[in-house]
Specification:
single chain; mainly alpha; Rhopdopsin 7-helix transmembrane proteins; 15 helices; 72% helix; globular; membrane
């Protein structure tokens, strides 16, 4: 018995040694990879307020930015928080597909749209934070893609809230209006985020925040109104298995909205949150938790409120909502392409003026 125990301890020790050698192996595989630089060595549009070091140099090859996934820089945790969230959502989709018939049950499509949009926004966020540092053009390209993903997630939130969480009284007042309005608000949110990013060249930082936050806040208030009605019904909380998940998603969203708009940690500890502790990293974590609570709540509503939502929504309504999701995606892609064209015009003027 003692021999077996010692052999297992030895294997664990060897495994730990191999794990400790991973950073060295990566360094040897890419010995020419440059280190990080200070904020003064990158253009102003790459700088984050109160983040002084840890920036990756521009105009390196793609291999450098891909391998920077395993390097220590000020975007590392922004990448990994949403990369891990993407994997969690992927596992959740696989688990749900074992009990939910996403192909033959149209009533499950809103839940599927929510999960697919969650995968989209996390994947696009990873791409933006991982690859957006290559050049100014690619910086705008990948972050516009990120905003397209956020708009899709907003629509995904709207459809599950209206389809599964809405009660009869609210449904009577907003039926026929809710999802078209959600489509418009998602597109306006994408436009506001893209325009705010584009304004980096000419307007102060607070203008960018206003352009990004105001349309998104209006969209959130509209999209979450069915959930708010549920949360106001405290008397039915004990009979509603999804109640606390809905409460959790609202609490997490309000928390991540606070950290998105207020770089609180960096402001009080400038230069000490360059790698760990940035408000944007906390925002990523809270947003992922919000989404996970939302998926749990929507699945519970899908199972437990079937009699209600099948009575409220007509047979062809879910197909219309799925079509509006496609419309939202197309319009947001066009918005991103239009704003990218404007960015290219600015870059061309800057190049000619040199």
């Amino acid at each position: 018995m003692a021999t077996i125990v010692m052999e297992r301890i030895g294997r664990v020790f060897i495994s730990l040694q191999q794990i400790r050698q991973v950073p060295q192996m990566l360094t040897e595989a890419a010995p020419s990879m440059p280190g990080t630089v200070r904020d003064s060595e990158v253009p102003s549009y790459f700088r984050e307020r109160y983040v002084c070091t840890g920036y990756r140099p521009l105009n390196q090859n793609w291999r450098y930015y891909l391998l920077s996934l395993f390097q220590r820089h000020n975007e590392t945790l922004n990448i990994w928080t949403h990369l891990l969230a993407f994997l969690v959502f992927l596992v959740k989709l696989r688990q749900l597909s074992e009990t939910v018939d996403f192909v033959n049950d149209p009533h499950s499509w809103p839940l599927l749209i929510l999960i697919l949009s969650s995968l989209a926004y996390t994947a696009f966020s990873v791409a933006a934070h991982l690859l957006g540092g290559k050049s100014e053009l690619y910086h705008y390209t990948f972050f516009f893609l990120d905003y397209i993903g956020v708009a899709q997630y907003q629509y995904g939130s709207a459809i599950v809230h209206f389809y599964y969480a809405v009660d009869e009284s609210l449904h009577r007042h907003v039926h026929g209006l809710f999802m078209p309005a959600a489509t418009v608000l998602s597109c306006l949110s994408c436009l506001g985020c893209c325009y705010g990013k584009y304004c980096n060249h000419s307007l102060p930082t607070w203008v960018r925040k206003v352009c990004q936050v105001v349309p998104s806040a209006i969209a959130y208030l509209w999209d979450s109104s069915p959930v708010a009605m549920r949360l106001f019904s405290w008397s039915t909380a004990s009979e509603d298995p999804a109640f606390f998940y809905h409460f959790g998603q609202v609490a997490f969203f309000l928390s991540c909205a606070f950290f998105f708009t207020c770089p609180l940690l960096e402001r009080f500890f400038p230069g000490r949150c360059d790698f760990v502790g940035q408000s944007h990293q906390v925002f990523h974590i809270f947003l992922a938790c919000c989404t996970l609570c939302q998926i749990h709540a929507s699945h519970l509503d899908y199972v437990g409120r079937r009699e209600l939502y099948t009575r409220l929504h007509g047979s062809g309504e879910v197909a219309l909502f799925a079509g509006l999701y496609a419309v939202t995606l197309v319009v947001c892609v066009l918005i991103g392409a239009l704003m990218l064209r404007k960015v290219k015009q600015v870059l061309d003027c800057k190049t000619k003026s040199k």
